[in-house]
Write the structure tokens for this entry.
Amino acid sequence: MSTAEVPLISAAGLTKFYGVRVGCLDVDLEAYAGEVLAVVGESGSGKSTLLSLLSTQLRPTRGSVHFRMRDALVRDLFQLEEAQRRLLSRTDWGFVHQDARLGLRMNVSAGGNVGERLMAVGWRNYASIRREARLWLARVEIDGDRIDDLPTTFSGGMRQRLQIAKNMVSAPRLIFMDEPTGGLDVSVQARLIDLMRGLVADHGLAVIIVTHDLAVARLLSHRIIVMRYGRVIETGLTDQVLDDPREPYTQLLVASDLRG
Amino acid sequence: MSTPPVYNFAYLDEQTKRTIRRAILKAIAIPGYQVPFPSREMPMPFGWGTGGVQVTASILGPNDVLKVIDQGADDTTNAVSIRHFFARTAAIVTTTRTSEATIIQTRHRIPETPLKDGQILVYQVPIPEPLRFLEPRETETRQMHALADYGLMHVKLYEDIARHGHIATTYAYPVMVDQRYLMDPSPTPKFDNPKMHMSPALQLFGAGREQRIYALPPYTRVLSLDFEDHPFERTRFTAPCALCGATDAYLDEVVTDDRGGRMFVCSDTDYCERRRPARQAGDGGERGHEHR
């Protein structure tokens, strides 16, 4: 079996209880390289909990998450050492937050933000860090002149693009996104989605994107997972699920979408 | 008239000293690692060197000769009061001569006279955590130390270069201890960083308010962080000390009048005074000024 047929990340029986309340329950999923997987559902349905579990920011009550490392070995993420998990999360993974303030250091310049991952893995040449930062700023359409500006001076759309550059600089294989287009106006959303599609195509990334916006899911994702009350209630190819939803709840969700 | 108070030797009770010595031993065993210790209330406010005073009190013996400096000077308030404190509570001999002292407690300087085998330098430390201003959560900084996850410190230096064209940190310049722990050298000027490297003296750091002790055993590798293309540079001065003519010492700016008059003199008063008799008076330069 070639590596392309082995999922990059897979979860089995993933369950998280907050006290007696359910965060998410018995979630199984797989994501492959070059694939965008959307997780949709209304707020409180367990989407963000699922994302935190997959990215090991939360420990599950039970269940496991496996990841195919660069050496092609599939490892259980919660059996890894903390140091290995940290290395993964700043080299092989990216995380794009809805609120850019969670993903960026707001008191550090754009170049410093992009360079952080490089310095964390041992880059010690100022000129090369800067060259790489400029390159990535250009790729996400941020003017090179802004390299020394603080993200606080950036617009919402620019901050999201800066977050993406900051993550992409370490050539990750998997990116988690939590409502990356939330709160942006539609034209800015469209450009961001365009950028993300380009990156997925060019770099063979896997993306797991949490969104409540079905239009974003339709434009960006190949496959979709619908969640409700912490469970996966429907899964399949995106256009299939959105054009011909089987579950009553999914039908309601699709029917409620204003842009339907 | 009431009888004067009687203190235990060096003020602290023996049990406390033993506790602090244990912390010191652990700190020596793990160079650069911040060891928590139960900091005591001292008869001076936090910020006046309570950490250094507790370390000194714990290691002081009746035959020790103590020197105390504040920003290099023996004659400033902090130095004088701490010297008197130990002279009174421990009845030990004090000195201002670096070469005669067995223990030197310091606030923010390392003496210019090279330290010798057997001497102990005790630093007063306000903030022991070098990552504090980059990552305010102590739980997180401890993790970072445990995993030697220090990329963030370079982000700070990167920002310096991006904004100022060079690493603009001139004091509390972060160092890597024995290729393992990132350490704040206390707010000593970066001029003093190279003196920490492979020093024959034992260096102990006490932070009273923060309740941390850390140490550099003699002959420990201490390297200042930098970039390949922006290497660490020691502060240089363009003119010698106006009083003793030293060109290899750290200089303080002294304002001499209200018409803009100023002179630059050694911050290490002992070093400056020892040099002066060897020199004729009257030809002191006054144009010395700091060059980054």
In short: The beta strands of chain A are 9-18, 21-31, 36-40, 62-68, 74-76, 93-96, 174-178, 206-210, 223-228, 231-237. The mean pLDDT of chain A is 92. Chain A touches chain B at residues 82-83, 86, 90, 105, 108-109, 111-112, 115-117, 119-121, 124-127, 129-130, 147-148 (CB under 8 Å).
